[in-house]
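Suppose you are handed a protein chain with no further information: no name, no annotation, nothing but its sequence. What can you learn? This example shows the usual starting point.
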Amino acid sequence: MKHARALLLGGLCLVATGVVKGQAPQTTVHGTRTTATFIGTAAITGTAPRADDGYLGVREEPQIDAAFSKPQISGAMSPARVPADHVPTPEGTAIAAETIFGFRGITHFDQRFAPTLLPTGINLSATPPDQGLAVGNNFVVEAVNNAVAVYNATTRARLNLSALSRFFGLAPDLDLATGASGPFLSDPRVYYDWPSGRFFLTELTLGVVPTTGAFDGTSALLIAVSQTNNPTGLWNVFKINTTNDGIAIFGTCPCFGDQPLIGADANAFYVTTNAFSLATFRFRGAQVYAIPKAMLMSGGAITARRFAPILQSDDTVAFTIQPATVPPGGTFAENTELFMSSLDPTNTLDNRLTVWALTGTDNLATAVLTRATVATQVYGFGPSMQQRPGPAPLLDLLANGPSIFRDGSLFKNHPELIESNDDRLQQVVYAAGRLWTSLSTVVKTKNGPVRVGAAWFIVQPTVSGAAVSGTVVNQGYLTLNNDNVVFPSVGVNAAGRGVIGVSVIGPDLFPSAAYARVDASGAGPLFISRAGAVPLDDFSGYAPFGFRAARWGDYSAAVADENGDVWVANEYVPNVARTVLTNWATFVARVHP
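A reasonable first move is to predict its three-dimensional structure. Written in structure tokens, the prediction is:
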């Protein structure tokens, strides 16, 4: 979803274990029953983008106000745990070069013109991509807002390309013949479940009034599961109604489950969301959905569990709870799914992470959710990012072109800034008995100004009965002295060797895709997997569209394959065919860790 940088999200009630002094007492959380309804089958069809239809519309996502304040259960919000002058000051990371196997993935041109369900239907311009990535059985599946593609992992050939509305059998964003609007889709994620050989794809959907495009007050979580290990075949599709899945103490619904996050253990598939009101776009609570994998693979109605308690955890309610995945050949925690999340109650700086454990997943009806807080290195909200100046045709058109793009006011002709978003944790991997994760953070390198860097963490979890604790094994930062390292995702193989995929952006660099290797001993140098060729020139960064800084992403993706290699997918800006409104693209690379 399109969020302001100060986005603050919702809460779960958990069990404290005393890892950090002063954390609030909690109780064990039990789930409640919910249903995932089978709604039909789907397939990723289509092979190439359609012809340019000339339509210049964008589909704006719900905007979370930057002034949104974090809710409290009781008492006063504690002040920041880390003084404002304690911004991390790591050494700059070295940059190295090597030849890499990779390919350009989905571009905005692909997204905009991906085949839809109707011959007169179109996709409106969407930004940022918010990448999902799954690799297995020699296939690569990539999803963005709002398209999905399948590639051959050996030849790099694209096999299929489809609008996600078409994949789910839904009306397109807009039908040019009738003017009707289709459902709103956002935040795709993809996962390959190596024990079963099945692919999973999730998406948030909001219902709309076809004649006006306004939200109609309904929302759902869509879950697709491939019927075989071939993602070009049929998928089963399920829906969980999330319209009323808010927590009453935070206010009434209708609600939507923002930014679904996914993971799995040996027994179940997990999706977490942050519920927001569809009327006010204010927080209504964090949710954890646990769904038996066997039921998803067999089809039919499914009984799942929803964990959504209301008690406070430490200084804040919980938000963006990332479920863990396990790489091919790895060992699952016994009947336990692990999660992680960041804290930072005052949107400044913090030095804690939360580890969560859902124990007893072999019987979800009696499974319980607990948590512990772990002391870490400092992290915090980063600034917006400058980028290297260069050709920007949309900027020129806005400043000098037809009045359709302008409201009559003076438009300042300068390169757009790019948002770094906030300090929510990115994806989590449980490998070699440890949890691996990362986030974007403010940094001030010793030889440079305040910029954005990537903080990475390796945490050793311990589960005893229903209690969980954790300790940091290693941690660090990826930074550049004058430029930014942003939106990291960590992929790790079963041996505990990983790769952190990032974007690098700054006064010296057009937006580029990069990566660094990481293991328990630390992280290595940054490698540029694909250099950007021009600046980001995106409608979301220009005042005539109602924005101040361009969107780049809420998340990237990284995942290990069956051979132990790690695939990373990140945004960059190539000098290739683009649309009028933006020029982002994705790059998918395979790295031997």
